[in-house]
Design goal:
The structure holds two protein chains of two kinds. Chain A is mainly alpha-helical. Helix content of chain A is 73%, strand content 0%. In chain A, helix 1 runs antiparallel to helix 11 and helix 6 packs across helix 7. By secondary structure, chain B is an all-alpha fold. Chain B contains twelve helices and no strands. The longest helix of chain B is centred in the last third of the chain and has 37 residues. Classes of the chains: A mainly alpha, B mainly alpha.
């Protein structure tokens, strides 16, 4: 960890912050560019002109645009996402409850996908061109092409409906007795998380494999791999310790794109499995035309992506001892 | 005044310029056909293109055909008929009426196979339109960014790409469609806005390495302008690579559109595979009507896989690894 200089970290932090600022701006432009106004969905038949004026007042629509923009940016940075017009509570309280659930599902499937993907990619790259490589590669690409919601429904049909092994809905048993101990709660969550986790990583691991395979193949022709083999080390040691560690670096770069891809997957999978997370909240808010929630959930997903990217950057430096960030080379 | 000999020399000139390219293409094609994956991809794509162009040839019925009542759009489905829908695959005459539905019917009696064939057009349209649009944005930006590497132009483009990567892709599409209205055009535009990034970054990398080649140096010495170098000398060399990303973008776009359709954010007046899966779920037959659930998903999978197969085989032709 000492390799990461404070200056580099500060630079990455500033860039992440600027990214979020730009995303907030895009969000603002998007919402303001919609036909009509976003309070249209809150206006009901019974309202008179005065109430509508008051509604505009409350949402700050009477102020000049630059003023609205500054308010928007400041509010979003302080966690003031406003109140939801459909659920009549503050958006922040809705979101903060769902954030950990999304992170549990997203985080665990990210870990699974980025463990399986590089491992498979490592084997395929090592034995590139063999029949096994071609078959597994083509299978992987086919899995990558599957719409995640469809494969999720097939899994639900198989494991929940037919075999009744796993649960396909929510995060905990609904209407169960409330004698939860940490152990029963954990097993219950595991029982429920298995299917969404499998469905998400079923599609997600391929992205890492696609990068690991050519990267591993490049590494195998390097001199140090040859040297390691000449020293008489076992093939397994050479592959895992010498080749794979270096081949992993492009995977860390790809993870930046992979994170966004997995977030997409998690939004859809949450919807399929009624997982009470941010993605599900977002979809139901879109359907109910609840724009404060829609904006805030989108923003929060962007924050997750930016934070994960920062983390990936740090992992990157740990993986590759040759990179010394923040120092002149 | 153009004389005959001048014309001949122009034809010769053209021939001379194009012959090596045609030769290169032929060699590439030979290499391509050695990939079984790529050939399978092309075959699948060919089938779907045929479906999209001539749906009436492949579909057993027209779009208005319904089980038991035929093509009469105003016919009333009796409760007795309704209780039999969705109907599993049937191949023979039934109730005195011709009844041929190789993949069964949906809840309203429409043939699944017919719907699948007619939906190929929208899937291909979305794939090609979104793929082409994101290439049209990503490739020129990648070329410019690579050619002016390490200048403020490159820096600016790379920062834009960096920021755009921070945006969640499907949520962005959801917000965009929710705000701008649910239409196929908006979906395609949204996909193009978010998916040109990969093209840009990878084309930039390729341009950076091409830029160092000696023939670019000599073009520079010969006094070629930057525009000429980029579009005349570098661009033709990144075209195959651009094609790889076009194919991948097309696959991503088709899956993204299907996902949006599943979430209920697609144009419900059109016919699409994603919408078919949504309909099964919405009418509650997901566990009981496998003939209705599985084919549209397989169609999406196979068309996206075909694009990936083609893309990766072309990539292998362009940069041979072994």
């Amino acid at each position: 960890m000492t390799r990461i200089s404070a200056r580099y970290l500060a630079k990455r932090l500033v860039i992440s912050y600027l990214t979020l600022l730009v995303i907030m701006t895009i969000l603002f432009v998007l919402i303001r560019s919609m036909p009509g106004s976003f309070i249209n969905s809150m206006i009901t038949r019974e309202m008179d002109a005065d109430q509508i004026r008051r509604l505009r007042e409350v949402w700050g629509l009477n102020e000049p645009l630059w003023r609205q923009y500054i308010d928007f940016i400041i509010n979003y940075q302080t966690g003031e996402f406003g109140r939801s017009p459909t659920q009549k509570v503050s958006v922040w309280s809705l979101i903060i409850r769902r954030l950990p659930r999304t992170l549990i599902l997203f985080g665990s499937s990210f870990i699974v996908a980025y463990t399986v993907g590089p491992l498979v990619g490592m084997y395929l790259g090592w034995w590139r061109g063999s029949k096994k490589d071609k078959t597994i590669f083509a299978t992987g690409l086919t899995m990558y092409s599957m719409p995640s919601f469809w494969i999720a429904w097939i899994f639900i049909w198989l494991f929940d409906y037919e075999l009744e092994w796993l649960k396909a809905e929510f995060m905990l048993d609904q209407f169960a007795s409330f004698a939860w101990t940490p152990v029963t709660a954990m097993t219950n969550v595991l029982h429920h998380i298995a299917l969404p986790l499998i469905s998400m990583s079923f599609v997600g691991w391929v992205g890492a494999m696609l990068v690991m395979r050519p990267s591993m193949n490049n590494v195998t022709s390097q001199d140090y791999v040859f040297l390691a083999q000449a020293k008489g080390l076992s093939e397994r040691t050479v592959m895992m310790k010498h080749a794979a560690r270096n081949a992993l670096i492009p995977v860390a770069t790809q993870a930046i794109v992979g994170i966004a891809f997995m977030i997409d997957g998690s939004v859809i999978i949450e919807q399929v499995f009624s997982w009470p997370g941010i993605g599900k909240l977002m979809i139901s808010a879109v359907m109910a035309q609840d724009y404060p929630i829609t904006q805030a959930t989108f923003f929060l997903l962007a924050v997750i992506i930016v934070a994960m990217r920062l983390l990936t950057d740090i992992v990157y430096t740990i993986l590759d001892p040759r990179i010394k960030f923040g120092e002149e080379s | 005044m153009s004389t005959k000999s001048e014309q001949v020399s122009r034809v010769d000139n053209l021939k001379e310029r194009w012959e090596p390219r045609i030769e290169r293409f032929r060699r590439g094609w030979d290499r391509y056909t050695r990939h079984r994956m790529g050939v399978i991809g092309l075959l699948i794509l060919a089938v779907y293109i045929l479906w999209a162009l001539f749906p009436s040839v492949f579909a057993p019925h027209g779009t208005e055909w319904r089980a038991f009542v035929g093509s009469d759009t105003s016919a009333y489905l009796t409760p007795q008929i309704r209780s039999q829908l969705p109907h599993p695959p049937a191949f023979g005459p039934m109730f005195g009426d011709e009844f041929f539905a190789p993949l069964g019917t949906n809840k309203l009696g429409y043939g699944i196979f017919t719907k699948m064939v007619y939906a190929a057009r929208s899937a291909l349209y979305i794939g090609f339109a979104a793929g082409l649009l994101s290439s049209l944005v990503g490739v020129p930006l990648g070329l410019i960014s690579g050619f002016y590497g390490d200048t403020w132009i490159d820096e600016l483009i790379q920062r834009i790409v960096d920021v755009m990567y921070g945006m969640p892709f499907i949520p962005f599409l959801i917000v965009l469609v929710a705000i701008r209205g649910i239409s196929t055009t908006n979906i395609i535009l949204g996909i193009a806005i978010t998916s040109w990034l990969n093209n840009c970054i990878l084309i930039r990398g390729e341009t950076l390495s091409l830029k160092e080649r000696s023939y670019i140096e000599s073009a520079k010495v010969a006094g070629a302008s930057d525009t000429r170098i980029v579009f005349r000398h570098i661009f033709p060399n990144v075209v195959p690579l651009a094609f790889v990303f076009l194919a991948q973008d097309a696959a991503v776009a088709i899956i993204a559109q299907a996902s949006l359709a599943y979430l209920g954010l697609a144009d419900f007046t059109t016919n699409s595979w994603g919408l078919m899966i949504e309909n099964v779920k919405a009418s509650g037959f997901i566990f009981t009507a496998p003939w209705w659930v599985i084919p549209p998903g397989l169609a999406i999978t196979s068309i996206a896989a075909a694009f990936y197969f083609i893309g990766f085989s072309v990539e292998d032709v362009v940069n041979p690894q072994d």
